[in-house]
Amino acid sequence: MQNVTIYSTPTCHFCHMAKDYFKENNIAYTEYDVASDLSKRKEMLEKSGQMGVPVIVIDSELIVGFNKPKIAELLGL
User: Fold this and answer.
1) What would the pLDDT profile of 25-48 be if each residue is shown by its tens digit?
2) Which of 15, 45, 63, 74 has the highest CB neighbour count under 10 A?
3) 8 Å CB contact between 29 and 6
4) Angle at Cα 37 formed by Cα 41 and Cα 69, nearest 5°?
5) Residue 22: half-sphere exposure toward Cβ, Cα within 13 Å
6) How many Å apart are CA 69 and CA 21, to the nearest integer?
7) What H or E segment, with its residue span, contains residue 19?
8) Cα atoms in the Cβ-side hemisphere of radius 13 Å centred on 6
9) CATH classification for the domain delimited by 4-75, as one of 3.40.50.2000, 3.40.50.2300, 3.40.50.300, 3.40.30.10
């Protein structure tokens, strides 16, 4: 099973789409709300170099935005 992390905000439409996609496919994930968690926001910035969300990390692969084909490829869906 892959290690899946999503950095998101409560108002981000694409973040909700990504989390719904994970739930539909029974993918466990760790979520960090970068709107309220400043240390995780800093971590996200260091990893991605930008403030856009979602930032999704699958194992060691970083995806900025809800790139469904890339996510499906990395998850083997």
Assistant:
1) 999 999 999 999 999 999 999 999
2) 15
3) yes
4) 55
5) 23
6) 12
7) helix 13-24
8) 24
9) 3.40.30.10
For position 51, what pLDDT does the model report? 87
Longest dimension (CA), the chain: 33
* Res 71: pLDDT: 97
pTM, to two decimals: 0.94
Give the whole-number percent of the chain exceeding pLDDT 70: 100
User: Any idea where the domains of the chain sit in the sequence?
Assistant: 4-75
Residues 54, 14 contacting (CB under 8 angstroms)? yes
